[in-house]
Design goal:
Blueprint: E1 4-7, H1 11-18, E2 21-22, E3 31-35, E4 44-46, E5 52-53, E6 58-59, E7 77-79, E8 96-101, E9 103-109, E10 117-124, E11 130-140, E12 147-157, H2 160-165, E13 171-173, E14 175-176, H3 181-185, E15 202-206
Parallel strand pairs: 2-5, 6-12, 7-12
Antiparallel strand pairs: 1-3, 1-9, 4-8, 8-11, 9-10, 10-15, 11-12, 11-14, 12-13
């Protein structure tokens, strides 16, 4: 699971990191804490235009067949093991994207019911700016004619660090190694190749 991320890198650093340009500087989101359930537009890179950092995609995938946007709270994440089977994602499994982040957040439960939790911030050990593997969709609102661009973050089995941090579900987002980002965008590569035990190096620190 991954419902909360951080993207605090400025435009210049993001453009340098990906050797790409921002499509709309006024829409570029920087925030220490991004709540997926707010369905904000966050910077991503899609497979069709890797030279552009897109700012018009929001978190919470709306499949093309959806009648309305109410589905979004249930599509913030997609399990990598079953993404080709679930109706919400299978038609978009070839639409690959990189979600740009500087951290994500998860909670460790200190009791069985989660009444006492400890918040952790997870960063890359090597890169100030990293990416999470995602899928995207373009949804047409038939009533208004508006097209909404949306995405989901893929999750996989937790590695040893995240098994401790996310002890409730023992899941984690697919945090890509820098050298594998181009491979992820290439749909000829199997999605399952990026599942556990594939995992980038990360560090998890408790935070207030």
């Amino acid at each position: 699971m991954c419902f909360f991320i951080q993207q605090k890198a400025p435009i210049k650093k993001v453009e340098e990191r990906f050797n790409a340009r921002i499509d709309n500087a006024d829409s570029f989101l920087q925030s220490d804490y991004i709540n997926g359930f707010a369905h904000l537009n966050t910077p991503i890179i899609i497979d069709r235009t890797p030279e552009i950092i897109s700012t018009n995609f929001s978190w919470g995938l709306i499949p093309s067949w959806a009648k309305d946007i109410d589905i979004r709270n249930n599509t913030l994440n997609a399990r990598i093991e079953t993404v080709d089977e679930k109706p919400s994602f299978k038609n978009n499994s070839q639409n690959r994207c990189l979600i740009i982040a500087t951290a994500f957040y998860e909670w460790h439960w200190n009791d069985p019911k989660g009444k006492v939790k400890e918040k952790y911030q997870i960063n890359s050990q090597h890169d100030e700016i990293f990416t999470l593997a995602g899928l995207y969709s373009n949804w047409l609102n038939k009533e208004t004619g508006e097209v909404m661009n949306t995405y989901t973050i893929l999750t996989t089995q937790a590695n040893d660090i995240m098994k401790y941090v996310h002890n409730m579900k023992q899941r984690m987002p697919v945090m890509l190694n820098k050298e594998d980002e181009s491979s992820w965008l290439d749909s000829s590569n199997r999605i399952q190749d990026f599942a556990f035990p594939y995992s980038a190096n990360l560090i998890a620190l408790p935070t207030n």
